[in-house]
Amino acid sequence: MKSFLTDSVFLGVVVSLLTYEFGLWFKKKVKIAIFNPLLISVIAVMVFLVVFHIDYADYQEGAKYISYLLTPATVCLAVPLYEQFELLRKNLKAVIAGIISGVFTSMTCILVLALLFRFDHQQYVTLLPKSITTAIGMGVSEELGGYVTITVAVIIITGIFGYITADAVLKLFHIEEPIAKGIAIGSASHAVGTAKAMELGEIEGAMSSLSIAVSGILTVVAAMVYANLL
């Protein structure tokens, strides 16, 4: 059985898709935010690999093909933004200010925590791109000399955490403006958080989609500066 599974070129793709579909089904059944489909999928894949004694490298050989879809999937988020373009034009200054604040708040928090926990430079730069989409974050981490695999894991955890806590945080700080909600979620928790923003409404989803792209670009530039601070 192990030989059959490890020799299959598309093992990673099939396992990833099936576990994610299971996550979607389970989320609809329980209707609790903490049971995010992506989180359930990650756990299910880990269990599968352990039970069948399959090396991660064998799984990744097939799963890597899904990664090729990350960039086009991110670009497709421009569609809801296009539909709300007039709203963006009217609130452009506030939107840009919100995204910039989100990016620099995220990176400053990483710097402070790195100093408190005495991270070395490589550990520090690994965490800098935590709040941007994986497609961009991997490149930033590699360029700065970080641990790319850990960066990917941190980005996923950040997104899932944002998805789970978005409603509670918005209520805690009494944020009711749809544009503010979208900017906050998108700049803090990238594409996974944007899924939550789209559940909240079209405006929230559009603004969150914009935040992903702009935050990614700003982080590429800002990370180069912040990397030299530690």
UniProtKB/TrEMBL annotation:
The chain crosses the membrane at residues 6-26, 33-53, 65-82, 94-117, 144-164, 206-227. One of its GO terms (cellular component) is membrane. The lineage of its organism: Bacteria, Bacillati, Bacillota, Clostridia, Lachnospirales. It is a multi-pass membrane protein. It is found in: Membrane. The keyword DNA-binding does not apply. Pfam families: LrgB (PF04172). This is Putative TIGR00659 family protein. Keywords: Membrane, Transmembrane, Transmembrane helix. Coiled coil: none annotated. InterPro entries: CidB/LrgB. Its main location: membrane. The keyword Transmembrane applies.
